[in-house]
Design brief:
Length: 233
């Protein structure tokens, strides 16, 4: 891999910053200064330093974001603000994309990664990845509504929704956990029982809970344990 690509992919420096740094003698590979930004390196084995700081290679990056309302789960859009717009430049160079989609007015846990194969697996219906949502709805939920939502409802697809888990924290509020990820899944499930979602927040994905210290719009990298939960699936 080219040295400047490595520095860009590790979020260390843009290609033009790397060029300047290399010229200024700020980059060394295995202890030797390198002035050529296209110098070939082995990211797994070579030791690269940028102005004296060791640059560690991480093949994949995983971020947890607390998505705010009003931004869309996409990488770019001509008119709307996207979740990628909330990241500093250093992260925007890494080829990250949201793992799954939350509606514009849904908040909460969104994983961003550049591991396409893993994202594909996590989103595949075959893998039954659990997603938990805290909701408020327009009308009180009856016992019968809860039973229906848990057993499966007709949302206009070939089959009823897969079994879900629901717990109420009030007449019109609670948490629902599903293993599918159909378009507008939760909103359509509530419509199927004559109700309407008012607010929706994803509180967990694949067993990883939303970090309660993350303010809306902020993010952090997944811990080693959290990344292993995702990768181990
Ligand atoms: N279900 C929905 O209806 N919307 C979301 O954003 C996520 C799940």
């Amino acid at each position: 891999m080219r040295l400047d690509k490595f520095l860009s992919e590790t979020g260390t420096a843009s290609r033009s910053e790397s060029r300047k740094a290399a010229r200024a003698g700020g980059i060394s590979v295995n202890g030797d200064p390198v002035s050529d930004p296209s110098f070939p390196i082995d990211p797994e084995h070579d030791e690269v330093s940028y102005f004296g700081r060791r640059v560690h290679y991480q093949k994949y990056v995983y971020l947890m974001m607390n998505k705010p309302e009003g931004v869309i789960s996409a990488t770019d859009d001509i008119s709307e603000r996207t979740v990628l717009d909330l990241l500093p430049d250093k992260y925007r160079r890494l080829g990250l994309f949201p793992c799954g989609r939350l509606d514009k007015n849904t908040t909460g846990l969104l994983i961003l990664t550049n591991n396409g194969a893993l994202a594909h697996k996590l989103l595949s219906p075959k893998h039954h990845v659990k997603k938990a949502y805290r909701f408020t709805c327009e009308r009180p939920l009856s016992q019968a509504d809860c039973v229906q939502l848990e057993h499966g409802v007709d949302i206009g697809e070939a089959r009823p929704t897969a079994p879900a888990r629901l717990s109420l924290s009030g007449d019109c509020a609670g948490e629902i956990t599903v293993t599918e990820g159909k378009f507008h899944q939760i909103k359509r499930m509530f419509e199927a029982v004559g109700n309407r979602i008012i607010t929706l927040e994803r509180t967990a994905f694949a067993g990883i809970p939303l970090d309660p210290t993350l303010a809306y719009g902020s993010f952090r990298t997944l811990t080693q344990e959290e990344a292993e939960i995702l990768e181990g699936r």
